[in-house]
Specification:
The protein has about 70 residues and is mainly α. The protein is about 90% helix and about 0% strand. The protein contains 3 helices and no strands. The protein is elongated, with a radius of gyration of 16 Å.
Length: about 70
């Protein structure tokens, strides 16, 4: 694979990840709800904070991959 092809593949992957980042965050929260019974018992503000952490992690991963 040439450098140009690799750069193009990376750009496509980054664009795709950016498009689905909201879906990834939603899937993460759904997974927490399905697998951790105590998660649903948390106050809404804490659940919201966990969602923000999940979204920040996804965003950080995308930025790391870009660099």
């Amino acid at each position: 694979m040439t450098d140009t092809a690799a750069a193009s593949d990376k750009a496509e992957t980054l664009a795709w990840l950016r498009r689905i980042s909201g879906d990834l965050a939603t899937a993460t929260i759904q997974r927490l709800e399905e697998t951790l019974p105590w998660y649903a018992e948390m106050p809404p503000a804490r659940r919201s904070a966990v969602g923000l952490v999940a979204q920040a992690g996804i965003t950080s991963f995308i930025q790391w991959l870009e660099d």
